[in-house]
From TrEMBL:
Record protein name field: DUF8006 domain-containing protein
Transmembrane segments: 12-32, 39-57, 63-81
Organism listed in the record: Halopelagius fulvigenes
Domain DUF8006: 1-83
Key words, A-Z: Membrane, Transmembrane, Transmembrane helix
InterPro entries named among the record's database cross-references: DUF8006 (IPR058319)
Length: 83
C-alpha cells in the first residue's frame, strides 16, 4: 500500500485528467500481456466513458474529446476482435 501523503503529493502537481490518462495507460499496458483484443476494447470503452463523465470543472476540454474518441475506437476494436 502506498501512503496517502504520497498519492496526495502526486495529485497536487497534476489535474484529474492527467491522473486518469496515466491510469488508462497503465491499464492498457497491463492488459497487453493477456493478448486479448476484447479486454483491450473493453478497457478503451470504459475509459472513454470515464473521460466523458468526468466533470469539466476538474479537467480541460480536450479530455472530453479524448473520451469521445475512445468511445468510437473501443466498440470498433470489440467488433473486430476474434472469437
Amino acid at each position: 500500500m502506498l501512503p496517502l501523503q504520497l498519492i496526495d503529493s502526486f495529485l497536487l502537481d497534476y489535474n484529474v485528467g492527467q491522473a486518469l490518462l496515466l491510469v488508462f495507460i497503465l491499464a492498457l499496458v497491463g492488459s497487453l500481456p493477456l493478448k486479448s483484443q476484447k479486454i483491450i476494447a473493453i478497457n478503451v470503452t470504459a475509459f472513454g466513458v470515464i473521460f466523458l463523465l468526468t466533470p469539466q470543472s476538474l479537467v480541460p476540454t480536450h479530455y472530453l474529446y479524448l473520451g469521445i474518441a475512445l468511445l468510437v475506437v473501443g466498440p470498433m476494436l470489440l467488433t473486430t476482435a476474434n472469437r
